[in-house]
Design goal:
With 753 residues, this protein is α/β, with parallel strands linked by helices. It has eleven helices and 44 strands.
Length: 753
């Protein structure tokens, strides 16, 4: 019996130890990553202003947020900062790490800088930040690993530490139990770091981001390690700068990591979507986003497939090999892989100048897309699986990739897409159609139709009218004192004292009174009135803007009118038949938008009447509220208090319900203290009667013409600022203890739509 008791006790103890060990293992997994991204375009006196340091920092932050495991709450981005702001941010990171309640097995800190530097320091405008001081400040951050990436001239000097030795990070074990530091620089101790207008980035950062997104993954495990990234960035940066005037650029490193396992910097499986470049494909692959900004430029050899983790969006691709140049568009869908190869694009004729013509013939939005779970990458037991967003698998052979379904494009879709691309190409390549034999480089007119110099030409580079000018096609500038008329296309600037008329304006129209264009790609600016059938850009007028389709911004002093809006309308009165953007004004009439009248009764006894107008993305709220007893009281001996308020809100809709968030500013009015003379009005402190408020309404039942809802309202009192407003209003809950206090209330109500 005693033996049985002893065995039972022993088993219980062992189970407790096992449970504790299991619990510890579960709660100490993962890595916490923190990061500071700095972009400094300012070079100070005697140094050239950079153009892309700030955007480089933002793009690096975006990549690390998407696939690098750096949560937005743990990252800071600083544009043109001071030395003090960098030090303060380092302190914030240190405090975050120290006070973190995370059970991660280690913490990692990434410091990225893009900007000017010299042999001794980073150059923040005219203020230097000495390398030794910066290194000491970074070392004080209490993380297990420090990764420092400097994209600046002479940045190799940062990593020359006394007594330090370079160690190649070829660490075999994948357990990644490592500590220490890794310093990467974009150039050696005596080299310039270069940026490019062509790629709108620095060569080094562009290579780093392209590598992080998958181009550096030479092992094929969908993870990019520190070693892989440095090797890729070194080769790409050197190859692109070998023939530059500033000379070749050799990235440098100092890596001292103690432990086992290479440091993984990005996980491609965490990306929204995946771009796959087939195993047998070769050549230069240029990927751009829908706005034409370069995303990646990859020089690929046959024999190794490449996978790139990118946001789900629309892209264009250009593939250049020894025999041809091909172009086309494709869409990356969320949680799916798109196979990009020469067969899915259209061959274009190579020229020494810019390429014209249709670049997507026979190509439509029905691209070659598979769901990630449908991709097969070998035997079930050998293909890699990753948790999270389903299982993504690689192509192990060209045969597997060739099993993708063929493009299914109807003739109508192909023709429509072809026509659309051909029309768009006219805007981009307008100069290509010019015949210099029929061009006037300077056209002078007395008034429209009466030419004094170089009349009768089909094209004009610069057209000037004493009173007015009349042209068919203007390449750069059309200017006159009263009027400009262009019967076809204006590429550039059309400016007149009174009005401009153009069939198609690709650029800017400015006039004292009005502008008129069938299609405006750019900006229309006038003192009174703008008119365009299709607007892609900005329409700004002192009184009225009118457009059929708006893809951009309408801003008017009085009224904006449009039938279809994808963008922003700003004016006293905004009208649109269809809008999936934002309308900001006193009166917003959106046919498919909000036109609500609402009533609420809250726990403070206030009866509330309000109207809402605009779109679900952003609507305007204006309202009136008053204590229920005072509202229905006939006692005129007491001055009654009433509240007028207004603000902005947004709506989230799901099923038969919706949720409104509104920021409101309430004004509390009572004749006891309101000014009665002009002197009292000027001296009155209107801030004392204003109450900032946040209102959240859950519309439990949201029908076609009726919403039934309940919600929470929060009123904010700041001591010494708006005490008077709270003296004249009743709040059931909350107490003023000095400083800033919050007074909550709940309400029930309904809206008529």
């Amino acid at each position: 019996m005693k033996k049985l008791i002893l065995i039972t006790i022993s088993l219980l103890c062992l189970s407790e130890v096992f449970a504790a060990a299991t619990d510890t293992e579960e709660t100490t997994s993962g890595v916490d990553r923190y990061a500071i991204y700095i972009g400094s375009n300012k070079g100070g006196k005697g140094r050239e202003q950079l153009l892309y340091a700030g955007s480089d920092a933002q793009n690096f932050q975006k990549a690390m947020s998407e696939i690098g495991g750096v949560a937005d709450s743990n990252s800071y981005i600083l544009i043109d900062p001071t030395k003090e702001s960098i030090d303060n941010t380092l302190d914030k990171i240190s405090q975050k790490i120290t006070t973190s309640q995370s059970h991660a097995k280690r913490s990692e800190f990434i410091f990225y800088y893009s900007g000017h530097s010299d042999e001794n320091s980073l150059l923040l405008g005219d203020i230097p930040y000495d390398y030794s001081e910066l290194k000491a400040a970074i070392t004080e951050v209490p993380s297990d690993i420090h990764v420092v990436i400097l994209d600046s001239c002479y940045s190799g000097n940062f990593i020359r530490t006394k007594g330090g030795t370079k160690r190649k990070p070829f660490l075999i074990d994948d357990s990644s139990v490592v500590t220490g530091h890794a310093y990467l620089s974009s150039s050696s101790t005596n080299e310039y770091s270069q940026e490019s207008d062509e790629i709108e980035s620095s060569y080094f950062t562009n290579a780093m981001i392209t590598g992080l997104r998958g181009a550096a993954d030479t092992s094929g495990d969908n993870k990019v390690t520190l070693n892989e990234l440095y090797s890729y960035a070194f080769n790409e940066t050197l190859s692109k700068t070998e023939t530059s005037k500033a000379g070749p650029q050799h990235p440098n490193y100092n890596i001292t990591l103690v432990g086992s396992g290479d440091l993984v910097l990005s996980d491609l499986s965490a990306g929204e979507a995946m771009l796959s470049i087939a195993k047998d494909a070769k050549g230069k692959f240029i990927i751009r986003d829908a706005q034409g900004k370069l995303i990646s430029e990859i020089n690929k050899s046959a024999g190794q497939p490449i996978f790139m983790a990118l946001p789900a969006a629309r892209y264009s691709a250009t593939i250049i090999d020894d025999n041809s140049t091909k172009k086309g568009n494709f869409t990356l869908e969320k949680d799916q892989v798109y196979l990009l190869s020469q067969t899915t694009l259209t061959t274009i004729k190579r020229k020494t100048n810019r390429v014209r013509g249709n670049t997507s013939e026979g190509y439509s939005d029905d691209e070659d897309i598979l769901d990630i779970d449908d991709l097969d990458g070998g035997d079930e037991d050998t293909r890699p699986h990753r948790p999270g967003r389903g299982s993504r698998r690689r192509y192990d052979s060209v045969e597997k990739a060739s099993e993708l379904p063929e493009l299914a494009v109807s003739e109508e879709e192909a023709a429509a897409e072809s026509e659309k691309e051909e029309e768009a190409s006219k805007f981009v390549s307008f100069f290509d159609v010019f015949n210099h034999n029929n061009m006037a480089y300077f056209h002078l007119s007395a008034f429209p139709g009466l030419s004094l110099v170089n009349g009768g030409k089909e094209y004009s580079l610069v057209s000037v009218g004493i009173i007015g000018s009349l042209d068919s096609n203007v390449c750069a500038i059309q200017a006159s004192s009263i009027m400009n008329i262009n019967t076809n296309i204006i590429n550039g600037w059309q400016t007149a004292g009174i009005f401009n008329i153009a069939s198609q304006a690709n650029g800017v129209q400015t006039a004292g009174i009005f502008n008129w264009a069938n299609t405006a790609n750019g900006g229309q600016f006038s003192g009174l009135f703008n008119k365009a059938n299709t607007l892609n850009g900005i329409q700004s007028a002192g009184l009225v803007n009118v457009a059929e389709k708006v893809r951009g911004i309408q801003s008017a002093g009085l009224m904006n009118y449009a039938k279809d809006v994808s963008g922003i309308q700003i004016g006293l009165i905004n009208y649109a038949e269809t809008s999936n953007g934002v309308a900001i004004g006193l009166i917003n009439i959106i046919k498919d938008g909000m036109h609500h009248v609402g009533f609420n009764w809250d726990s403070n006894g206030m009866f509330d009447f309000f109207v809402q107008s605009g779109t679900k993305n952003l609507f305007i709220t204006a309202g009136f509220s008053m204590d229920r007893q005072e509202l229905f009281s006939n006692d005129n001996s007491v001055n009654k208090t009433f509240i007028l308020y207004g603000g902005l809100g947004t709506e989230f809709r799901f099923g038969f319900s919706s949720l409104d968030f509104e920021f409101l500013l309430k004004g509390v009015f009572n004749n006891d203290y309101m000014p009665s003379t002009r002197e009292e009005f000027y001296a009155f402190n209107f801030g004392s009667i204003l109450i900032p408020s946040l209102r959240m309404t859950f519309n439990v039942l949201s029908l076609k013409h009726l919403d039934l809802g309940a919600g929470l309202s929060l009123d904010f009192q700041t001591s010494g600022v708006n005490d008077r407003a709270f003296d004249y209003t009743y709040h059931r809950w909350g107490e003023h203890d000095g400083g800033t206090d919050v007074y909550p209330s709940i309400f029930l109500g309904f809206k008529i739509k």
